[in-house]
Amino acid sequence: MTRKISYYIVLFFILFVIEVPIGYAQVTLQEAVETTLERNLQIKQAEFGYQISEQNLYQSKSELYPNLSVGVSNTYNYGLTFDQTSGQLIRGNDWTTSAGGQLSSSVAIFQGFQKVNQIKANKIQLAVDATEVEKVKNDLILSVVTNYLEAITNGELFEAAVQQVKLSREQLRQDSIQFQVGNKTLADLAQAENQVATDELNIMSSENAYELSLLNLKQLMELSPDTTFTLERPSIADIMAEYAITSFDDVFKKALLTQPAIEQASYYKELALKNIDIAKGAYYPSLSLNAGYGTNYSSRATDIITGEQMKFYNQINENKSFQGGISLQVPIFNNNRTKVAVNKAKIGYLQAENEEALARRNLEKTIAQAILDLRSANKQYFASQVAFNTSKVAYETIKERYDVGMANSMEMFTAQTNMNSAEFEMIRRKYEMVFRGKVIDYYIGNPITF
Asked: Which residue stretches, if any, does this entry annotate as coiled coil (predicted)?
C-alpha cells in the first residue's frame, strides 16, 4: 500500500506541478528568431567589426586631404650656448631664453592611385563585414530553429511518457485486483510494476531533455534561465503540403541570391582584385607638396642699428619665414618588393576566385542533401505512423488476451514496450520532417515561421 501511495504522489507531481508553465505566454518560432536577432551577443560582436571597417573607410578618405600641424617651443639655457636666432655665441653666467613656432602642411599629389584604390578596397571590405553580420544572423536563425523544434519534440515525448505511465498505472491497478482474487500470479504483478517503473524513467529522461533544450533556446535568446513560456506547435499537414513539390533547381537558384556566404565570397574576389591595383601603384612615381611657416624669438637678439634688445612682437615679425617645396620620387629598384607584392596579390585573387567556386559547390551539395533529407524524413514519418498504428493494434489485441488469461505478462510487457517505442519514434520523425522543411526555408530566405 505504501508503494502504491508513493507512485500516486509521483504521478500527481508530474501531471500538475511540472505542467504549471502551460499558463504562461506562448513564444512562436518567429518571435524566438526575432528576439535572438535583437539580443544575441554574437551579432553585436559582428556589428563591432562592421563599425571598425567604417572607421577604416573614413580614414582612407581622409588621407586624400592635406595634413596640418602646429608646434611651439620654449628653451632656457644657462651659460655657454649658440643662439641661432641672434646668430651669436653667448658666454658668461647668464640665462638665455629662446622660443619658436611653426605651422606646416603636406599633401600627396600622386601615389600611383594607391589612395584612391585603398578607398575602393575599404568600401568592399565594408560590404564583406556587412555580409558577415548577415551570415552570423543566418547561423543563429538555424540554431534557433534546431533548438525550438528539439524542445517541441522533447515536450511531446514528455507528454507521451505521461500518458504511457497512466496506462501502465491502470494496468498495475487491474493486475493488483486480479492478483488478490488469484487470477494473476506474482510474476504478472511484478511485470506490471516493472512496466510502471520503466515508464516513469522515460518521464524523467524526457523531462530532462525538454528542460535542457529549453535552456539552450533561452541562451540563444539571451533570456534568464528562470523565464517560462510555452512553444507553438506546427501544423504537420500544412508543412507536408508546402514542401510537396520542392525541387533542387528552384531551391538552389533562390539560395544563390539569399545566402550571405555566396555574396561574401563574391566581395572577397572583388577585394582581391583591388589589392592587385594597390600593389601595382608602387611601380609609379610619387609626387608630394609641402609648405610651412615659422618664426623665432631670443632674449639675446638685438637691433643691428641701435644695438638695443628687440621686443618680442618685433622679433616675431622680423624672424618669420615661409617655405614650400615639391618632391618627386621615382622607384627604380627596391629589391623586388613591389614585384613580389603584386604577385602575391594576384595569387590572392586566384584564391578568392577558388573560394567563391568552393562556396557555390558546397551550397549546391548542401541543398541537394537538404532536399534528400526532407524527402527521407517525409517517408520515415509515414512509416513511423504505420508502425505506431500496427503496434497499437497489436497491444490492444494482446491486452484483450491477457485480460482473459490467454497471454502471459511477458507478451503484454513486450507489446506495450513496442507500442511506447513506436509512439516515441513517430514523434521524433514528425518533427524531424518539420525541421528539414525549415532548413529549406532557411536556404531560400523564407520567413522562419509555422
From this structure: 349-380
Which phi and psi angles does 232 have, rounded to 5°? -80, 135
Q: Are strands 67-78 and 95-110 parallel, antiparallel or unpaired?
A: antiparallel
User: Cβ-count burial of 122 within 10 angstroms (0-12 exposed, 13-18 middle, 19+ buried)?
Assistant: buried
Length of the chain: 450
Q: Are 220 and 140 in contact (CB under 8 A)?
A: yes
Q: Which of 208, 152, 186, 141 is nearest to 428 (CA)?
A: 152
Confidence of residue 240 (pLDDT cuts 50, 70, 90): low
State the pairing for strand pair 230-231/26-27: parallel
DSSP code of 16?
Answer: I
Helices and strands: H and E segment counts in the chain: 11, 8
Locate cell 622680423: which residue? 318
Domains of the chain with CATH codes? 2-39+111-284+331-444 (1.20.1600.10), 66-110+285-330 (2.20.200)
Task: Please give the Cα distance from 438 to 450 (Å, whole number).
Answer: 9
Torsion of CA 265, 266, 270, 275, to 10 degrees: 10
Q: Please, what's the largest Cα pairwise distance for the chain?
A: 141
Q: DSSP letter string over 19-64?
A: TGGGGSPEE-HHHHHHHHHHH-HHHHHHHHHHHHHHHHHHHHHHTT
Cα 434 to Cα 448: distance, rounded to the nearest angstrom = 12
pTM: 0.79
Q: Which helix (H) or strand (E) is 167 found in, with range?
A: helix 114-180
Helix (H) or strand (E) holding 229: none
Q: Compute the distance between CA of residue 439 and CA of residue 138 in angstroms, rounded to an integer.
A: 11
Cα dihedral 139, 140, 141, 143 sign: positive
Per-residue pLDDT tens digits for 253-281: 999 999 999 999 999 999 999 999 999 99
Q: What beta strand segments (E) does 202-265 contain? A: 230-231
| Cell of residue 133, nine digits | 553580420
CA–CA distance, 305 with 300 (Å, rounded to integer): 15
Angle of helix 114-180 versus helix 260-280 axis, rounded to 10: 160
What contacts 253, CB < 8 A, 6 or more positions away?
none
pLDDT tens digits along 155-195: 999 999 998 888 888 888 888 888 888 888 888 888 888 88
Crossing angle, helix 409-444 and helix 114-180, to 10 degrees? 160
